[in-house]
Amino acid sequence: MKNRFIASLLLGTALSFAAGSIASAGDKTVKIGALSDQSGLYSDLGGPGSTLATQMAIEDSGLAGKGWKIDVISGDHQNKPDIGTSIARQWFDVDKVDIIVDVPNSGVALAVNNVVKEKNGVYINSGAATSDLTNAQCSPNTVHWTYDTYMLAHTTGQALVKAGGTSWFFLTADYAFGAALERDTTAVVTANGGKVIGGVKHPLNTSDFSSFLLQAQSSGAKVIGLANAGGDTTNSIKQAAEFGITKGGQKLAALLLFLTDVKSIGLDIAQGLNFTETFYWDMNDQTRAFSERFAKRMKNGAPPTMVQAGVYAGLLHYFKALEALGENPHDGVKIVEKMKSIPTEDALFGKGEIQPNGRTIHTAYLFEVKKPSESKAPWDLYKLVGSVPGDQAFTPLDKSACALLKK
Amino acid sequence: MQALYAQLLVGLINGSFYALLSLGLAVIFGMLNIINFAHGALYMMGAFCAYFLLNLGGINYWWALLLAPIIVGIFGMILERTLLQWLTGLDHLYGLLLTFGIALIVQGLFQNYFGSSGLPYAIPDQLRGGMNLGFMFLPIYRGWVVVFSLIVCLATWFLIERTRLGAYLRAATENPTLVRAFGVNVPRMITLTYGLGVGLAALAGVLSAPINQVRPLMGADLIIVVFAVVVIGGMGSIMGSIITGFALGVIEGLTKYFYPEASNTVVFVLMVLVLLVKPTGLTGRAA
């Protein structure tokens, strides 16, 4: 009899515990969609590496141990805005995805931005460059994590003008990204007393740049601004060396250069190039530790690019916001607001914050490509030459054209 | 005006690649009746072959020019023996689909292992530097590409149109049974011809390695243009494909100067125009 009483008492306690936990638990499921260029010219800087960064962020967040269930799916937008938006729509409508990450290629990124806003999801963009994501086309659902064209123009661009590069000729990738980068850099050049004397728009994914380079050469500009990315930039730089452009006294401005690009050009040709990034694997013990774990799981053993690092760090911050909310409200605006209210801090980008327009600001670093003799390991490619605090590198809020700021 | 000369010359350089590749396609189509969509992938394999020879075997560019076409050519001959030969007599579409599938598989494999940004391959020491031509700075390597590919193109044309071996080949295409009756091993000849066409693609790949990045998709980007070149020149015409290759390179170069945004569409606009006016291509014979 006594045993029975104790047993029922225990059962009752267990039941009330269970009931209590149901009442306070809420929905702890999250589905992440990693949307990237999985096979084209941007796939090395984002692509499968960004999916890996997503998985590592989930593991490192420790949320699985706290009762959260987090799934990842990945997709290939093939650098086509229509494909990107249809994947995004399917993810929200059919697969019930909560958040889309990465999305390099500004054209696709802007198109996906609209879908995420319409579906009230969360969008952490790391791969795309266009500053429009937090200006004219800003959205309450979007966080632009890693870098943008404004930052590139105000760091690399400004440094070159101040070093005497007063006349510019642009080689611009003919889509949203190239246009944004050229626009933002032109503003910096003219504001600092330089002028733009010409430019040429080339199709995305061009293999032969000799024709464009000859035009740049004959323009006599002191600086040839490369407003392109990935394979387009590496080909431009390689072929510029071939045509003796840098030997002739003209300087190349690699406005956007990634780790994988430098590796692909080779130090012989790339040495001495100045450029800006917000993350490099060999900055401190923490970045090295992360990069080592990352590289071990990459098929070609490559350390993370800043885009992949941004996916990781952005997601960790997203998880922080979810944890603070205690559940997943499946309400993009609410989650992004929470993300903005918490200062950012992680092992890869250090301290920073997300501004009301969705722009994450953190320190930007000026790098120079090492000489072959200075490089001690296969991926030992950069030399740090300076840094710009986040509030000076990124668009000041009073200059941002974002409608969210005018409330 | 000076800029224009420079653009013409640059166009000629690109034309060299178009000519070499479309020549290989024309040889394969003319002799085997196969539309070889794997051509771009084989071109890429040529470049990778040069890269491996240098980095794994320490074998320099000059040997790569000789060895890479042979190695990739042998790979091509294995493809022909094991896969393509079963398609003899079937509709063109089957060959196209099979080779397209091969191209996707080969590119996919390379991309899986080497990513998409490509590997560096340096210009050989003897061909570094450049000459000032007055109107432009011509990298010596690029000049070499034009001269060398022109020689290879003409030699191939001579081999097929002017030698006894070439006569056998052409006869075997017209009437394989009759040629076989004369004691010529026609299947072996066809295999060798495919090997030759593939070797030309690989040679173009080696030539292009120091200029472009050695990338898994380098052929996929190029092959579409090259097919347009072949269509414009006329399927199966050897001289036609050489001349059209160089000519389209120049036209594309001029477009890059006058209206750069259209530089990757101009070839296709021309293709449409040619097909409307002369469906067999500029030098093609009616089927």
From TrEMBL, chain A:
Name of this chain's protein: ABC transporter substrate-binding protein
The keyword DNA-binding is assigned to this record: no
Family: Belongs to the leucine-binding protein family.
Gene3D superfamilies in the record: 3.40.50.2300
Keyword Signal: yes
Keywords for the protein's UniProt record, in alphabetical order: Amino-acid transport, Signal, Transport
Leucine-binding protein domain location: 29-370
Leader peptide range in chain numbering: 1-25
Automatic annotation (TrEMBL), chain B:
Entry keywords, A to Z: Amino-acid transport, Cell membrane, Membrane, Transmembrane, Transmembrane helix, Transport
Primary site of residence: membrane
Lipid bilayer topology: Multi-pass membrane protein
CDD domains assigned to the protein according to its UniProt record, in alphabetical order: TM_PBP1_LivH_like (cd06582)
Subcellular location: Cell membrane
Membrane-crossing residue ranges in chain numbering: 6-27, 34-54, 60-79, 91-110, 141-160, 190-211, 223-251, 258-277
PANTHER family listed in its UniProt record: ABC TRANSPORTER ATP-BINDING PROTEIN, BRANCHED-CHAIN AMINO ACID TRANSPORT SYSTEM PERMEASE PROTEIN LIVH
Family: Belongs to the binding-protein-dependent transport system permease family. LivHM subfamily.
Name of the molecule in the record: Branched-chain amino acid ABC transporter permease
Source organism of the structure: Bradyrhizobium denitrificans
Organism taxonomic ancestry: Bacteria, Pseudomonadati, Pseudomonadota, Alphaproteobacteria, Hyphomicrobiales
